[in-house]
Amino acid sequence: MKEIVLLALAFVFFSGCSEHLVRVMPYEKEYFAQDKMKFDPLESRAEQDGHFLLIREASAGGESAFQGGCGCR
Amino acid sequence: MSIVKKLFLFFVMLLPASKLFASDLKDSASVGMSTYSGTGDVQVYSPAFAIFKTLTSQFMLGVKMRLDAISAASIRNGGNPVTTDAVTGASSKEGFDDKRIAATIMGVYSDNINNLSAGVYTSDEVDYKGKSVFASYSRAFNEENTMAGIGFSQSDDEWKPTFSRELAEDKRKEQKVDLSFAQMISPKWNVQFVYSYLYSDGFLSSPYHFVAQDDFSKFESYPDERTGKAVAIKTVNLLSEQNSMNFSYRYYDDDWDIASHTYAVEFLRDFSDELLLGARVRYYTQSKANFIKPIGEYSVDDEYFASDYRMSAFDSYMIGIPLIYKFALAGFDDIKLTASADYYWTSNNDYVKNWYNEDNIKAVSTTFMFDYQF
Question: What is the Cα–Cα distance from B195 to B35, expressed in whole angstroms?
């Protein structure tokens, strides 16, 4: 429960202070529409990574993507 | 009230705050295949497809299907590819040994400021059933320079071992909560932070792995609860008009005393308006779980037994090549082909040697996917 409260507080904090952060104007955002400027430029590879690295290693998390259950884990 | 119910109510409460903005949702379809081939004679061929259909300008329904056709000595030999015929007595190399069918149905709401998605997932294998629900919400602030998001998933899975082993607990439940925050730093630089909280309980080891010593053998036994946390930072930079580089770092630790660091760097280059190629490198290192012992040093009275290398300390490495190619075909414009090939290997490991009779894990992973937006 403590973690959930902290997450909610962090969400509110980031929401509230965002107006004071850097502002890139809409006409300056052309690069972010390109594939090479995405955090996960290949969605299918990101899904495959998420699946097989979760099987091969003991760590998880750190990506905001969902991975379903699998007996190979 | 469970965490899942609380988060569900949280998402429902956010909906009235959503204003009506334009949306970029589009109908789309994708079809492709991924493959995995690695140590232990494991080969997995995974055809997959996905269809997303807009119902209104701001709401979309999607279906994803994936079939894993698995061939593995570990399945044929009851868990141990070295100890022949340990449980099942099977030894055939013909055909596939297991199939996993996974389906995801999800709804997506987006008005470009608020993005909400939720869905259900189910998978079925010969010895494992998976069921999950998931939802995520993100909101853009600061003229869409800042994105904050929260997501959760809850799974309720069940083991059905392929031989007559009675498990005291055959359930495995997992909860995951993610908090993400992304900020544009400049027109050429974007940064994202992610915090994840993970909780698992139930039967958390494999029903097949075992510890075998001269005087006894025992199936693996792990603690029945695990709590982990991960923090990650990702950044993507435009180096020049054609070139970009992304970097990510993740720190993970849990109450089994496993801690890990993951570093990844990728370079991408536009060779033309249609073709993007790149290269990536990943390094991973983890410490051992607090209950694993060196091979041969267990006593029959120990509470926990582990023989799986994933509970030991090891490093891993991955190098790979990504490709994106856009083209038109038979009247369909803007078809996008994404493909990747990666080679993965771990450091030499005694537990891998003991189980697979090889010094380390080696694997090749590929993906091949066509995407089309209507």
Answer: 30
Q: Give the residue from chain A lying closest to B277, CA to CA.
A: A36
Q: Which residue in chain A has the smallest CA separation from B247?
A: A39
- Which one, of B160, B116, B105, B161, lies nearest residue B138 by Cα? B116
Amino acid residing at B206: S
What would the pLDDT profile of B42-77 be if each residue is shown by its tens digit? Answer: 899 999 999 999 999 899 999 999 998 888 766 555
Give the global pTM: 0.87
ipTM of this complex? 0.85
The string of pLDDT tens digits covering residues A37-59 is: 999 999 999 999 988 898 899 99
**Residues of A whose CB is below 8 A from B179:** 7, 10-11
Which residues numbered 152-211 in B keep a CB inside 8 Å of some CB on A?
A: 153, 155, 157, 159, 172, 174, 176-188, 190, 192, 194-198
In one letter, which amino acid is A4?
Answer: I
DSSP string, B221-269: B--SEEEEEEEEEEEEEE-SSSEEEEEEEEEEEETTS-EEEEEEEEEEE
